[in-house]
């Protein structure tokens, strides 16, 4: 199965009403708690019997039918058992995107191992930190990463690093584990992928895996006729679990690409006859603005699902590439709630239908940027925002076995920092998302900014996302990232825009565009123009290095401009002008 399969002929479902999508998702997940011994790997094994030769995981280098996937899972489990690994032991995995990656963690977790999924771009201190959090007994890595892992572990480590492609995989009858494995056992450690600070290792139980797989199966209406295109990192929850498992549990298949490539994307979609793809972050913007996607492909997609599709490109992307349905959602690997926009409302990250709000309690509360904490009223409890007002989004934490569970991190201190207590009643507990949101009168939620990204200038709060949405639509701008920087002798932070632009970009036109749509205090004071804007593996802009550079022209080869009001224009910033600003000779 190492070549694209023949085109599927089964009829695909049309865009379904939102009520049906919600109903199917609820029905699909209803029996999870009733079968505490049934794990995600068990569902794959059942499909290996009923869908034996049907494709499960596909790629250009290796592919598995359902029967081959189940067999490979067993081989990994046998290998682990032969090396004395037992229920609860941790194994770190550092591999590139390929079907064997998924088979490996499914096989090990089936017999109670906890698999830590390691970012393949890490090395040095960051990798050492992630391995320390995982505290594995063994590390399984592809050849390019073996030496890197050994160096991060250090010469005194007793942790064995195995070359994945050198593993002795044999068929054998599996013995039952001594301790029963249930859905409440931890299956994976998945690391947060934020743009600031060192990663945290979030605990992901077998229950959570099943919820993700079955909920998305129902919400997307997946069937055996579906084929998902997955070019996202397999070490993250969306690319590694949701995109894969939601189609597998429906009897469908997932195409695993090595990485995202705008040049290759549509060729792959058509060549593999995919019916859906998973997106995240700025992937859709890259496709829309890439010169490699000049023509509209002849595809058979029925939907795209993901998070982070910005309002300014939603409609243009959907219309240009003829995507019948876009399902945007909001979720965090460790979060206690999710939001889903199955109505296709551009810009909205989701909603919770009125008839489900008692099951998925969420709230947006007033937030004080100065203290970094939600605002509390005279009674000591948090204050809910009104429609249209921005605040921090919270999800109520449930101690039960249904929605609202918070499984935390390997670090208990970090876990406690995410919990806000006494929010609306004494003793209640809510998960802090760290995200500012607002909602409209129809109940749709909209992402405003990450807490910490919003900054104050001229006594006003500036939302980096709001400014970015405007800046990105200016003539000649291909991408924009907004952040606040320190200016000596000035209170607050000045707005700076890092721009990727076309050859026809005009500074005056940019100023006119942004000033006409933003309040004066939010229009970027500094501009930095470069060829590329660095992102994480999930296409989040990496702002910290940019913030660290500030507006110093000696820190970068990029062009930097500053708005000088007395001249009424953006002026190229050189060393002399930089010295005048930091010495206080120029006032803003």
What is the topology?
Blueprint: H1 18-29, H2 40-50, E1 55-58, E2 64-65, H3 66-82, E3 90-94, H4 99-110, E4 114-117, H5 124-134, E5 138-141, H6 143-153, E6 160-163, E7 186-191, E8 201-205, H7 206-220, E9 227-230, H8 237-248, E10 253-256, H9 262-271, E11 276-280, H10 283-289, E12 303-307, H11 311-320, E13 326-330, E14 339-341, E15 362-365, E16 367-368, E17 373-374, E18 391-396, H12 412-417, E19 419-421, E20 429-439, E21 445-450, E22 455-457, E23 460-462, H13 464-471, E24 477-485, E25 494-501, H14 507-517, E26 526-529, H15 543-549, E27 559-564, E28 569-572, H16 575-582
Parallel strand pairs: 1-10, 3-4, 3-5, 4-7, 5-6, 9-10, 9-11, 11-12, 12-13, 25-26
Antiparallel strand pairs: 1-2, 7-8, 13-14, 15-18, 16-17, 18-20, 19-20, 20-21, 22-23, 24-25, 26-27, 27-28
Helix pairs in contact: 1-7, 2-3, 3-4, 5-6, 7-8, 10-11
What does this structure look like?
The protein is of the alpha/beta class and 588 residues long. Among the domains are: 355-452, Roll (Luciferase, domain 3), CATH 2.30.38; 453-582, GMP Synthetase, Chain A, domain 3, CATH 3.30.300.30. Helix content is 29%, strand content 22%. The strands form six sheets. It has an eight-stranded mixed beta sheet. Strands 6-5-3-4-7-8 form a six-stranded mixed beta sheet. Strands 15, 18, 19, 20 and 21 form a five-stranded antiparallel beta sheet that branches. Strand 27 (559-564) and strand 28 (569-572) form a beta hairpin. Mean pLDDT is 90; it is low at 5-10.
Tell me briefly what this model is.
The chain is of the alpha/beta class and about 600 residues long. The protein is about 30% helix and about 20% strand.
